[in-house]
Amino acid sequence: MIEDIKKACQVMREGGVILYPTDTVWGIGCDATNEDAVRRVYEIKQRQDSKAMLVLVDSSVKVDFYVRDVPEVAWDLIDLADKPLTIIYSGARNLAANLLAEDGSAGIRVTNEEFSKRLCQQFRKAIVSTSANISGQPSPKNFSEISEEVKSAVDYIVGYRQEEMSNPKPSSIIKLGKGGVIKIIRE
């Protein structure tokens, strides 16, 4: 696992794209602050830039760095979440512009899964996390279901957890609006 993390970080620092296990499904990832790398992820997924992608961070402390005004309720949601939770925040900052939704929001998830958490810690920046599939096709449940097209398009494929045959669920998604309004996007 340590070698995988080192190599994945090196590839992302050089603007590359990785395929890696997350706290939910396998993800296509890159440096969330690098516009060119983010553009490549959209190209791999054959998806338009207007469809925002979420990012992973390793601690709630980092949310403050990527969001202008974190609503108070966000801290409670993060603390109380018993499964992976992506929160869409208004006023995103310090991320690649092409990663943000048209309204300037961004989806951020604090990961508690061992590999993705350590990857974020080592990389010291937010990492894009989007399901490892071509847009419109089903999300692969595990590594064996990822298409050759996606595998051949990335710069590095993490070896860790490739044999796992679990049936992970995508994260819940909540959008936090003005005045602490909570909108559930995906349960």
From TrEMBL:
Keywords: ATP-binding, Cytoplasm, Nucleotide-binding, Nucleotidyltransferase, Transferase, tRNA processing. The keyword Acetylation does not apply. It is an enzyme of class 2 (transferase). InterPro entries: DHBP_synth_RibB-like_a/b_dom, Sua5-like_dom, TC-AMP_synthase_SUA5. PROSITE patterns: YRDC. Belongs to the SUA5 family. This is L-threonylcarbamoyladenylate synthase. It comes from Bacteroides clarus.
